[in-house]
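Re-run with default settings, no changes from the original entry. Doing this only to confirm the output is reproducible before filing.
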Amino acid sequence: MKDTLRGSEIINIMRSDLLVSVGKEYLELGVDAALESGFLRDIPIVSSVVGLFGTIGSVRDQLLATKLLRFLGQLSKIPQEDRIEMVDKLNEDDKFSGKAGAAILEIIDRMESQMKPELAGKCFAAYVRAEISFEELRRLLFALERIPSFDIEKLADFSTIAIEDSLKMDESLLLAFVNAGLGKNNGGFGGGAIVPTNLCQTFVRLGLTSLP
């Protein structure tokens, strides 16, 4: 029930015309320092996010609040009417069934890096601009969750790699790509080689290969 209520409030924040206030201010000062020192708590959106977790005492809650602010910072660049339309589309989809906020909170919470939610925000922004479909959005979020953050920057080179070079790559790195749906075996002679998937190409095209 608690996550459902938090999810509803996240949707309200995503719809709000005040979301733009969380942009440059928190990025320039740094989310962690801002939350600890209280520099940004007077900004309505930051105050709303902090309010979702009460007095942020636990490490987990502070991390989740930080991740959520990083995610919302990317969405703040999207016009309000487009954000409202996006939220309505998400809630209408059978996969979310009116619980888009709770689903977003769960996705962000599972991400092991505080930087990944900004990349997730870029995925949602691409969905708003109709650059990707809802199915592609879901696959990208899954890939983002599964790929180790320290391997993300290697995807740009991998996306254009020749088969003979792929055969020389570190096995654990290639398996990480496969596990995230970003690599596949081409079924070639002698066991084949791991090559980039179409999802990998989309991942790179959207600029998700460098952590903020």
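The chain has two domains: 2-146, 150-205. The first strand starts at residue 183 and ends at 185.
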